[in-house]
Design brief:
The radius of gyration is 19 Å and the shape is globular. It has 9 helices and no strands. It is an all-alpha fold. Helices cover 77% and strands 0% of the residues.
Length: 215
């Protein structure tokens, strides 16, 4: 019995990233199935109710509008350009740029397959296009998530490493929350965006680390 448990633990440890990948895809597909059936999920209603009850205020609205910009095309392209110039290893710079391009195209593809209309009841800002999965959430998770991976891999100073990872992790989460807050996405849009990007990142970092930025 003890040997079996150790074998299971060893298998999980060895294949953890692939277990996470397939788990994210399965949950994403379950959400997508409901979206395809034109369902508004309880989680969508509960998610917005929590934010509208405890978060929305005159003070928080301009903050949400500012945070959401960090997941928008303009900011991401600017950051990408700066990193491409600043990073000496041009392979890493190109990997950052290609990551942004690939995940953006993937998001457009998924949106056009599922064609979920955006919520209309509580709009604070105007936004066009389809709703599922959230582009800001999906692209931010992939873009900043890849930066987190590079920081973890290359930054030696532990204080700088974990401070940067913490700040970027908070930014990713708050960008997602801002989309629900501003009334342009359902909770399931944001969750699905995060999930599919985590699965994508596992694949992307595995390929990039193996074939592009090997040490």
């Amino acid at each position: 019995m003890k040997q079996k448990i150790e074998n299971i633990e060893g298998f999980i440890k060895k294949n953890l990233k692939w277990i996470i990948l397939f788990s994210c895809i399965i949950i994403f597909l379950a959400i997508a199935e409901d979206v395809f059936s034109k369902e508004i999920m309880k989680g969508d209603i509960i998610g917005y109710k929590i934010i509208s009850t405890y978060v929305i205020s005159d003070f928080a609205t301009p903050i949400a509008k500012s945070i959401t910009n960090f997941g928008g095309a303009t900011w991401l392209v600017v950051i990408c350009f700066i990193l491409l110039i600043a990073i000496k290893n041009k392979k890493i710079g190109i990997a950052i740029v290609s990551n942004l391009g690939i995940v953006t195209l993937l998001n457009i593809l998924l949106k056009n397959i599922l064609q979920r209309p955006r919520p209309t009841e509580y709009r604070i800002i105007d936004e066009s296009g389809y709703s599922f999965p959230s582009g800001h959430s999906m692209v931010s998770m992939a873009f900043y998530g890849f930066i987190i991976y590079l920081i973890y891999k290359y930054i030696k100073n532990q204080y700088i490493k974990w401070f940067s990872i913490t700040i970027l992790s908070i930014l990713i989460i708050t960008i997602g929350i801002s989309r629900i807050y501003l009334g342009v996405h359902y909770t399931s849009d944001v969750l699905a965006g995060f999930l599919i990007s985590i699965a994508y990142l596992i694949l992307y970092t595995n390929i990039i680390n193996k074939y592009v930025i090997r040490k």
